[in-house]
Amino acid sequence: MKELSIEQTVNKVGEIVELYGWVDTKRDHKKIVFIDLRDRTGTVQVVGGEEFKALSEEDVVYIKGLVKKRPDKMANPKIKTGSIEVEAKELKILNKTKTLPLPVNGDGHDIDEEVRLKYRYLDIRRSRMYKNLALRSKFINLIRQYLFGKDFLEIETPILSETTPEGARDFIVPSRLQLGKFYALPQSPQQYKQLLMIGGVEKYFQIARCFRDEDPRADRAYGEFTQLDLEMSFVEREDVMKLAENLFIEVYEKLKVPIKQKSFPVFTYAEAIKRFGVDKFDLRTEEDKKNNVQAFAWVVDFPFFEKTTEGGWTFTHNPFSAPKPEFMKDLLEKKNIGNILTTQYDLVCNGYEVGGGSIRNHTPEGLKAVFEIMGLDEAEINLKFGHMIEALGYGAPPHGGIAPGIDRLLTCITGETSIREVIAMPMTSGGRTAIMKAPSVVKEEKLKELGIKAILKS
Ligand code: ASP
After folding, report:
1. Where is L-aspartate annotated to bind (predicted)?
2. Ligand 1: distance of its center to the CA of 98 in Å?
3. How confident is the model at residue 457 (pLDDT cuts 50, 70, 90)?
4. Which of 34, 59, 411, 449 is 20 to 30 A off residue 75, Cα-Cα?
């Protein structure tokens, strides 16, 4: 097994080491050949003889060699191992490579994204991509540590599920056992997390995958994304906001990423619109941008409902939210609808909405009133949400939660321009999976088993 990473070679002067990695670059000086050997931690210069001539960039090799200090004037301060080099004693080529379809030693920004995604497994060899993935892993780890420290339980919820409204289209999966019926992939674990609260869990979180069949937009990941989904019982709006805020303050401190203002400033929706013209605003100065300062803010007091084009009402954020307590009477009486404010809080960072949550309607009457205002009749409400209304009737605790988007937060921290730069295998903007060719045609027999006939558009 590989024991030593390339960045550790710098501490091994005078020792014989065994190294594994890829040939990053090769410089042939006739009798001696230099290569930079690369692994995920960096590169080191290796000096070899004739046998190194057979090497090509991106070959996978094993090298046994002596770590030597470089003469001062030969040192390369630009790389971590620049003060040393390895004199090769033994070389094994573990795998020869074909010529790569794209270079992997630059930052990759100038390469066509379709090509990068087709060969994503090569694209992530570049150090920029590896760093993004390593940061993502650390970020999630720090979030977990914080929440475990506050007695949260990490619980998984189903992926094959029933529709839950988050304002997008569902991905649907046909059932073989019940022909003609479909599962929906969750747009969020919203209902499950609330059911966990009714189950007495009190503090839940999940690094949750959410699926939304939205029209592709440049600032979104198509199809699926990851959010930190959390829910707590016996809380008020400010409690959830504080928990999320303290979590990010601690995580960002550990990552050494500066935050502009702690505590996060709070704006009402009306103030935000008046001041910035939008509810996702950027509080950073040019100086902040240069210093990678993250400017968080909260937006609260959104209207609960907005008019549909047909003249009815729909929810602005989340139908499971409770109104602010002073509007509960109006909600139950279905009066004054346009003025009802929701307990929704949105978290904004650097001009993006990076998450949102609310205190929920924990009584059956409250939730029912929301759906009635939206024009659903009794039968429809029972069909779609009967399980929730029933569950809320069995001693549901007051509860609320939030779901910050992991991909978007990481895009802000890294300063990347696209969310796809912080996801290992994102879909293309046209909705094709990286590397593999989904969505793809399935065999006739498979469709037959599902009782489905594809009517293909020409
Ligand atoms: N379910 C909401 C969402 O996915 C978040 C929440 O209210 O907790 O945006």
Report:
1. 166, 212, 317, 360
2. 46
3. low
4. 59
Structure tokens at 374: 């939206």
Domain annotation covers residue 315: no
Same domain flag for 144 and 89: no
Q: What is the predicted pLDDT for the residue at 138? A: 98
- How confident is the model over 265-294, as a mean pLDDT? 97
CA of 211 to the centre of ligand 1 (A): 13
Contacts of 246 (CB under 8 A, 6+ apart): none
Ligand 1 mean position, distance from CA 351 (Å) = 19
320 CA closest ligand 1 atom index: 7
**Do strands 182-184 and 203-212 pair parallel, antiparallel, or not at all (unpaired)?**
unpaired
Q: Is residue 206 part of a domain?
A: yes
Residues whose beta carbon lies within 6 Å of some atom of ligand 1: 166, 188, 190, 318, 356-358, 401-403
- pLDDT of 458 strictly over 70: no
Q: Which ligand 1 atom is the nearest neighbour of the CA of 229?
A: 8
Distance, CA 52 to ligand 1 centroid (Å)? 56
Residue 32 DSSP one-character state: E
Please tell me whether residues 174 and 246 are part of one structural domain.
yes
* 29 annotated among ligand-binding-site residues: no
Which pLDDT does position 191 carry in this prediction? 97
Backbone angles phi, psi at 186, to 5 degrees: -65, 130
Instruction: Report whether 317 contacts 358 (CB < 8 A).
Output: yes
Residue nearest to atom 4 of ligand 1 (CA): 188
CATH number of the domain within which 176 lies: 3.30.930.10
Mean pLDDT of the chain, nearest integer: 95
Q: What pLDDT shows up at residue 294?
A: 98
Could you tell me if residue 107 is inside a domain? no
Longest dimension (CA), the chain: 89
**Ligand 1 mean position to 360 CA, how many Å?**
11
* Whether 14 and 163 share a structural domain: no
360 is in an annotated binding site: yes
Per-residue pLDDT band for 168 (boundaries 50, 70, 90) equals confident
| Structural domains counted in the chain | 2
Is residue 49 located within the same domain as residue 135?
no
Instruction: Supply the CATH number for residue 41's domain.
Output: 2.40.50.140
The closest-lying atom of ligand 1 relative to the alpha carbon of residue 230 is: 8
Domain identity same for 150 and 283? yes
| Position 26 in a domain | yes
Q: How far apart are CA 228 and CA 230, in angstroms?
A: 6
113 in a known ligand binding site: no
DSSP 348-390: EETTEEEEEEEEB--SHHHHHHHHHHTT--HHHHHHHHHHHHH
Domain span at residue 64? 6-95
